[in-house]
Amino acid sequence: MNKYTFEKVNEDIYYEKLNNGLEVFLYPTNKTKNFYISISVKYGASITKYKIKDKVYDIIPGSAHFLEHKVMALSENKEISNRINSFGSLANAWTNYKGTNYNIFGSINLIENLKLLLDIFYNTDINPKNVEEEKGIIGEEIDMYKDQINSLMSEHLFKNVFKNSYVKNTVVGERSDIEKITSESLNRVYNDYYVPNNTFIVVTGSFDVMEVMNTIKDYIYKLNLKPKELPKTIKEKENDKVNIAYEEINKDSENIRVKYAIKIKKSLFSLKNDILLRYYLNIILSNNFSPTSSLYEKYKNENVIINMGASANIIDDYVLIVVSAVCKDANVFLDNISKDIKKINISSEEFERKKKLFLKSYILDFDNIEDVEYNIVDFMLLEGKVNYNEYTDIINMDYKIAKDIIKSLNFDNISIIKTVK
Question: Which mean pLDDT values do the consecutive 10-residue runs of the chain (421 residues) have?
Fold first, then answer.
């Protein structure tokens, strides 16, 4: 077991990679009496097709999320559910495009909770009966997302911007997708991806490091789990152009919502580190479109917007910048933003001030064991490793690079979606 230290905050983390490839991260702290345990698998909704040896498999959209439901099936396993409740613990799970996470938060009997989470993960029963029964539940979840205007607009926007990328499918899938999912297809994915060398465990909170590590080892080695050859993801080639440039969604609402998206080839940027590129972009966007920006104040005073914000995502070989607004007149907003988006800028003083906010957030994250867990999981799913020198990376962010990124912005590929009454 190795010990690593997050710089500046001097917080230690213990790490070990077991013989079968399972990785374990332990973050003990005396700041709390609670604990947070999670098991994550590097399989999410971004994988739509894969290959093992000479066999190619298509994955039905929504499968990763459906599998999450069948692994974390506490309604079917009353014994485990009752034991978790008896400890006053909370069990949950989530799926995104990059992975799936199963977790328990509690304050007593960490070792028993850990064993229960391992039982949930490694004793999954996926059969035709319980798969069919789950389809109605997931169908209701799909409908719920479609009833939420922001979720619906984002879903449409991704389909409009991308023609072949994984984001054209939502994480939860469509009802038509869910009907195609079978116990056979889910078991195949579970057996191919839910393997030790594609899985990692994170424990944060108040606990004894050796006791927790030995508990994990004893449990895993009794299962005699072996590493397996991981599937090779097959990606569809994406078109540089947006798929659909404009769409209106009928929605009976007093205020109009607009999303203005820019699709940019990642290769146009000289910075090749995705996480750092995202940091730079978010600093730049925050400076130009957040409530503290001069443009926000201008639009607000001119009664163009009710609120506005912007975000940057990196999706395979593309950067997606989205400006979202709630406004009374979408046409006025679009006329303004189409001109002002090309005037994005940031001064050296503003850049340094935003950097300080990033550094403050980095330090404050260690006051919350759930934030520590989330950051470890995020790095592992995106980069395959944890960055213990993130503070230095932020400190070393250079204003000249920020200016170069702004110069590299390309506004040729725009997709707009708005609501209409």
Answer: 95 97 97 96 97 95 97 85 94 97 96 96 94 95 90 94 95 96 97 97 97 97 94 94 95 85 97 93 96 95 95 95 94 96 96 94 94 96 94 95 97 95 80
Give the residue numbers spanning the domain of 288.
Answer: 246-420
Left if phi > 0, otherwise alpha if psi is -120 to 50, otherwise beta: which for 359?
A: alpha
CB 307 within 8 A of CB 292: no
Categorise residue 201: left if φ over 0, alpha if ψ from -120 to 50, beta otherwise. beta
Number of domains in the chain: 2
Strand partners, 387: none
Q: Residues 280, 414: one domain?
A: yes
Amino acid at residue number 3? K
Cα–Cα distance, 276 to 307 (Å, whole number): 27
Closest by CA position to 135, among listed 107, 164, 172, 184: 172
Is-contact 41 103, C-beta < 8 A?
no
